[in-house]
Every structure is written in C-alpha cells, then in structure tokens.
Design brief:
Blueprint lengths: L2 H4 L3 H9 L3 H23 L2 H17 L10 H28 L2 H9 L2 H13 L3 H11 L5 H8 L3 H23 L3 H8 L1
Helix pairs in contact: 2-3, 3-4, 3-5, 4-5, 7-10, 8-10, 9-10, 10-11
Length: about 190
C-alpha cells in the first residue's frame, strides 16, 4: 500500500492544513509520524534524536503550512525534508563533540589545507575505485548526469547506477577518513 492511498484525498488534506485546519494537520501527523520516526532513526541510530526531529519537522510544516497545498507528492517531500534534518543534526552533533573534546583544531586542519590537498585526497580515493564505480561516480558528480542518463550511457540499470554511486561514495569517504584519521561523518563535513 502506498503512503498516498492510505489518506483518501491527500491533496485536499494538504489544502485544509494550508488553510489552518488543525484536525487535518493531526490526521497528517498521525498518518506519517511513525514512519517518519523510523526513517530518521535509520539515519541517526538514536530514538531520542528521531523523536525530536519528527516533532521539529512537523512543527516547521505547521509554521509553513501555506506552502503545503503546492506539494504534489507529500510523502517524498516529507522524507527528503526529514533526511536533511537528520543529516544536519548529525553534523551539529559531530561539531559539538569536536569542540567538547578539544579536537576541533585537529579536525579542522584538513579543511584549512589548500584546496589542492583536499582535491589530491579525493582524486586518490576515486583512483582506488573499481572501473565501473569510478565511471559512475565521475558521470554523476563531475558531469552531473542523472541516474537514467548514466544507466543509458553505460548500458546498466538505473538501480545499478544508484548502488555503484552509494558504494563509490562510501569508499571515497572511508579512504579519506583513513588518510586523515577521522570519522566518516567528519570527512563528509570537511571534504564534501
């Protein structure tokens, strides 16, 4: 069952919320909050953070409710917003941990290095990738092709493109993390 089918007329519900209907908002919250919590938990691995972010996301939705009637696929919108909120929360936590442990000066040093240093590390990491993963990564990140365009050009499925890109990105982050001796989250924060 899709998320949309469970709410009879989601577009109408969103219009009602946009008009300030608190009962409609409660229906929307009741329908999505548990799935959203699971989604955020998968990213943060923290029930406490997931619960807090679910409430933050819905609070922001309510505060900006007039924009809801213009959303075509609310489920996708909601999950993208929550993913961004979760990643921002993780970045904030990592930054706070660095300051608390006194490692912020050490961890900032790669970012303070000339851009050449950062690019050399990224290039080295890309060079370590298997040929097809490297090609997918380069087509996606440097030529800005879509999954579909890459799949068509390489003669592979869109899902394979997606998987190769995920694996390639994880490998690059891991390589850089080992090179500069820092956690993957910090690598993402400082290098990407």
């Amino acid at each position: 069952m899709s998320y949309r089918s469970a709410l009879n007329d989601e577009k109408e519900l969103l219009r009602q919320v946009a008009d300030g209907d608190e009962r409609a908002f409660t229906r929307l919250f009741d329908h999505y909050h548990q799935r959203l919590g699971i989604h955020i938990y998968r990213i943060t691995r923290s029930e406490e953070i997931a619960e807090e972010l679910v409430h933050d996301v819905f609070l922001k939705l309510w505060l900006n409710r007039e924009l809801l009637s213009g959303i075509d696929n609310f489920a996708v919108y909601l999950f993208v917003v929550s993913k961004n909120a979760a990643l921002n929360a993780l970045k904030k936590i990592a930054s706070e941990k660095l300051k608390f442990t006194g490692l912020d000066d050490v961890a900032e040093s790669p970012a303070e290095q000339p851009d050449d240093y950062r690019y050399v590390l990224i290039d080295e990491a890309i060079d370590q990738l298997p040929p097809q993963q490297r090609q997918v990564y380069m087509l996606s990140r440097h030529q800005r092709l879509s999954y579909y365009e890459i799949a068509f050009q390489m003669g592979i499925s869109r899902e394979t493109v997606k998987k190769y890109l995920q694996i390639a990105t994880a490998s690059i982050v891991s390589y850089i993390g080992k090179s500069v001796k820092m956690s993957p989250l910090l690598v993402v924060k400082l290098f990407f």
